[in-house]
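Hey, I'm writing a tutorial for new members on how sequence and structure tokens pair up, and I'd like a real worked example in the thread rather than a made-up one. If someone can provide the structure for the chain below, I'll link this post from the tutorial.
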Amino acid sequence: MDPGFGRGPASFEKGRPMAVKERFHFIDQFRGLIGVMMALGHSNEYFNHVWFHFKFWDPTFPNGAQFGLRYMGYLCAPGFLIMNGAMVYWAFIRRLKRGDNVWHARWDFIQRGLFLILVQLVWVNSAWGAFSRLRLDHFGIIATIGTSMIILSFMISWKWWARLSLAGAIYLVYPFILKIPHNPDSWTHYLMEMFLVTGDFNLYPVLPWFAMALVGSVMAHFWFESWKSHAERSKKSMLIGLGLVAVAVLVRLGRGYGNIFPYSEIFSWSFFIDQKYPPSLSHMLWFTGEVIFFVGLFCRIGMHNNVLKPLGFIGKVPLFFYAVHIPLLAIFTRRLGIYYREGAVIASFVGWIGLLLVMYPLALWFGKVKRKSKNKLIQMI
């Protein structure tokens, strides 16, 4: 999922790299937060008995703790896509400044996108079931990220306002697209689910999530180029994030356009947990705003201390972290039959802590391997 994020705002003359400056640590740290939150959500999936009774798209939960545990994970997919779009933009700009031509840079992202799709189909799908069978009939979040990367590679050279305009158009039109009828018994439903709607084949249709990657590429223009100081990055990011959240609240209050699930009362559980599969407009706006806000907040925190530094080690190897922690959970619970969906909130947290105790040193180790290795496969992971 990392398209070659560099080491910060390096200065380049055409075809000749100059001195490399700082890495944007707040980006790594936020990606690390997403990874840690995602691990908690997946621990919840394997240890919490609630998933015998509820579906992923169900907004009702028996108590506040169960609601909070589920709602926490809603930040992860938008965070993945927005960060991926930002990294594609920054890596693309750096390649051009090193003297690469546009097609060479684009081809690199196409290869990486295809690799992510392959990882989803061959590794991740099987990992969920502890490698009990090869499952090629599912197109999940990693494949959606890879597809979005490929599409974005053909638009990444557009002006930022053109990419923002396209993203805005997708956000606004998508609620109408969801009303397009399709036959679930026809082969065409695979195309519909790949790009437009949610189903068993794909919970993450490409179109709305690609729009978030576009937003990430736009924010990267400001984070890495236009805004020259951490103070400016943090302040403006938090203001933009809060503004988008405010718009999301207004859309939700309207109860019509941009909403999928109804809610019982304003600011009730059901008010906040609007549909993710596929995402409603209010969901997209809310979590796009949250991601941008938290990036700004992490930038602000990093100006004063290094308390978030440990998250950065996970954020530097997000695909490795994702691809390894799922089979660890699945093998422990489903293959070995240890406490599979026998607990609740506390069990989810205990499993999460145990998982991090294993994954954190693995992430540190692989980060060192990746930093030293010139192997293309290792660089893609």
